[in-house]
Amino acid sequence: MKKILFVLSLFFVFTFSFFAVEWPQEEYNKDSILSYFGQNIGGAISTSLVFKDPSEVKAINDGKVLIILSDEADDSNFFPSTLGSAVIVCHEDDLISVYANLDSETVNENLDTKSSVKQGDIIGETGNSGWQQTRSNLEFQIIDLQKSAAINPKILLPRTENEIEYTMTGIMLQNKEGKYFDIKENKVFPSGSYKIFQARNKIAVPYRTTITINGVVLDGISFDTVCQENGKLYVTGEKEKYKAADLYPDDTLILLGTLMLTPGRSTLGITAQDFLGKVKQQNYILSIY
């Protein structure tokens, strides 16, 4: 499984490196983002990168306009009615970019479903037509139509050294009965299966998490894509597919992975990696009976 995930990571790096894109907003820094891809939005896994401030919106690459939405309801998971007014552009390799929460009056008057756009062309300005009813900001998505998956935009967008620092606090273990244990206060556990949670960051989501016991990888979650199966969105772990209810059991926690504890003295390792490769790591010596 680890080899497969490694190959998939290389696939994304090398395949999409040829799909050179620009940021959909002119200025970007770590304070420009309201919510990361994969974040908990109303109990669902977000497939969007949500910007914080109002801005002029531009095409990330050459393409053709596929759909123009004007506050129209749509019942799909990838294109929910919460997009509000939006422009969807089709690119090469079955990739599409979605620019949502726009001010419909500013969408280019010459833009229709037969229009071609060039990288950097102005699409419109942000508005309050989507779920961010009190803000005027861009909700941006990249979808791989062939794989029916939303791609984390940070994989394709130009790298920046300004990343929100991911904090790893409030580590909790949950047993199969649903009881939580604060790992700072509990170091002795009965053997069995456990889920590992931490306090959810309000904006940032890690690129990848890893759970180890005595240096052996047992689980981890990748936030490079959000896929769909039977109408449900999920992210991929080492062992299984994690849906919204698994990943975010409430508004305060995020799942880091699962593990099986066996009798003996073990070192539990928990890491969270961001897009710049920076790793937050915590180790705990546990006694299992």
Could you characterize the architecture of this molecule?
There is one protein chain. The strands form 5 sheets. Strands 1, 4, 6, 7, 8, 9, 11, 12, 19, 20 and 21 form an 11-stranded antiparallel beta sheet that branches. Strands 15-24-23-17-18 form a 5-stranded mixed beta sheet, with no helix packed on it. It has helices at 2-16, 153-156, 244-247; strands at residues 33-35, 40-41, 44-45, 49-51, 56-58, 63-69, 86-90, 95-100, 116-117, 122-125, 139-144, 149-151, 172-175, 180-182, 188-189, 192-199, 208-213, 216-219, 221-229, 232-237, 241-243, 253-261, 264-273, 279-288. With 289 residues, it is mainly beta. Residues 1-18 have low confidence and may be disordered. The chain has 3 helices and 24 strands. The protein is elongated and about 70 Å long. A hairpin with a 4-residue loop joins strand 13 (172-175) and strand 14 (180-182).
